[in-house]
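B., you asked whether I could sanity-check this one before it goes into the benchmark set. Here's the sequence:
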Amino acid sequence: MRKLLNTLYVTQPDAYLSLDGDNIVLLKDQQALGRLPLHNLESIITFGYTGASPALMGYCAERNISITFLTASGRFLARVIGQSRGNVTLRKAQYRISDQERESALIARNFIIGKIYNHKWMLERMTRDYPLRVDVERFKSISHQLDEYLYEARSCENLETLRGLEGQAAWHYYQVFDDMILQQKESFTFHGRSRRPPRDHVNAMLSFAYILLTHDMAAALESVGLDAYVGFLHRDRPGRVSLALDMIEELRGIYADRFVLSLINRKEVTPNGFYQKENGAVLMTDETRKLFLKAWQAKKQEMITHPFLGEKIPWGLVPYVQALLLARYLRGDLDEYPPFLWK
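And here's what the prediction gave me:
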């Protein structure tokens, strides 16, 4: 198991990233804002347009340190990675299966099984932990409905049908998402997913968490030799990390959604930490985004027992372990890809 390294988040939009020896240096108006040894880093995520020096990008590419460029609002711009170190046989197997809809569906259905199962687990846990604060009967009813979608997904061999099951299950799950917000209800409400742009505080945080999770998953896939851009459920589209989007499906609820809910329910974020643009987009302030990123890094250090391996690992290694398991399945070492089924 590899060591869990750190991600550097550069939140100042006008900082230029440069190289000095084995250090990354943040510059503004030719003045150094700070420096950090690169050997401690696994990846760099920067918010803004100023950019990075070719020397830094070359250094990071040689050492498999990815650099992801996002806009100040968190929209993906580009990702710089080094030459592919993937096993050619593994990637050929990935490409071959991706070109076959039925074979793709046999893998993709496990991503969706994981997603629906984990959503169901979240609802069941809410009824157990907060029986006096949530409508237990309503939660149980939706949980039973998710059971039906789980049953159908297990035998599904068609991608369109699978997408339909995922969409229906997600619709039911989101019907009680607002009920899982137990604090600050006057400011944090959820009436459905809104993307590009997010229209409320909750969606702003959900979108940001999904971006971070997708980045972590893409990095994990590349590190085990898979192509993050060639998926099974999400089909090929230029510039889209389709396989990373496939594999975060099973982690959206238990990793990203629970993280956002905890920030709200613990009152670690407040409505003062957001602002609205003229087009209606709701964004986090710089301070809230820094708080969010600090909490995200802390979350990645929390230890859990992996449900398939039975070993204790940090949350931050879950994307890497799932990527390894997918690679093992594609090599023929496993009979089936085991989704992350949390309890």
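One thing to flag: DSSP finds nine helices and eleven strands in the chain. Otherwise nothing jumped out at me.
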